[in-house]
Amino acid sequence: MDDNTTQAIRGSYDRIADEYALRIFNELQHKPLDRDLLNRFAAQLAGRGQVCDMGCGPGHVARYLHDAGTTVFGLDLSANMLEQARRLNPDISFRQGNMMALDLADRTLAGIAAFYAIVNIPKKSLPLVFREMDRVLQPGGLLLLAFHTGDEVLQEKELWGRPISMDFFLFQPSVIRQFIEVAGLGIEEIIERWPYVPEVEYQSRRGYVFARKPGSLAQQ
Known about the structure:
The chain has 220 residues and is an alpha/beta fold. Helix content is 35%, strand content 29%. It has helices spanning 3-24, 32-45, 60-67, 79-88, 126-136, 173-183; strands at 50-54, 71-76, 93-96, 109-115, 137-148, 153-159, 162-169, 186-193, 206-212. The strands form 2 sheets. Strands 3-2-1-4-5-9-8 form a 7-stranded mixed sheet, with helices on both faces. A two-stranded antiparallel sheet has the order 6-7. Helix 4 (79-88) links the parallel strand 2 and strand 3 (93-96). Helix 5 (126-136) crosses helix 6. The longest helix has 22 residues, at 3-24. The radius of gyration is 16 Å and the shape is globular. The N and C termini lie far apart (36 Å).
C-alpha cells in the first residue's frame, strides 16, 4: 500500500473521527457475541503482558479489554481518532502507528485485538500486516481478528455526510486463514455470524479468528 493511499485513509478517519466516536463507542453493548469473544480473549491474557487494540478507533475495544483485566494500549493511524480515544478513555494509553510498519520491538505483545483493523487494507498488503503481527507477538501470544466477510470492494466517497477517500474490503475466511498461517500463526478457531439489526451495524456477515503464535506464553 503506497504512501498516498495511507495518507488518504488517515485523512478520511481524521475527518470523521468525532462522528465515528459518537456512533461506535457504545456499540459493544448491542453485540453479545463480540463481548463473549473479547471476554474469552481477556481471560487468557490478563496478567500475562501487554495487549494491543490495533486499529483502535475511539478505543471502545481497548476500554472493554481494560475493564476485563488486561494491560492494554490502543494504536491507530489517525491522530484525530486517537484524540477521541484519549478523551473517552483517559486511563488508557494510545499511540499513533501503522500496522504495516509497527514501531514495536519483536516479541513485545502477549496479545493483539484487531477489530475491523484490516477493513481498508487491500488483499495484496495483508501478508505484510500479518507478518508484522507475528513479529511483535510473544511465543504463545494470541490474536483475535474481526473482519467483514465476502468478496466485495466498496468504494466510498462519503460517510455520515463527511467526504472520505478510501476503499472497504471484505474477505473470505479461507483467504484470511491462508494469510495468517503463511505469516506463522496457528489458527485456533474461525467463527462467523450474520449481522445484527441495521440500527446496530452495517449489514455484512462477520468473521472472527483466534490465532496463536507457536510457543508458550510465559507468566509475567
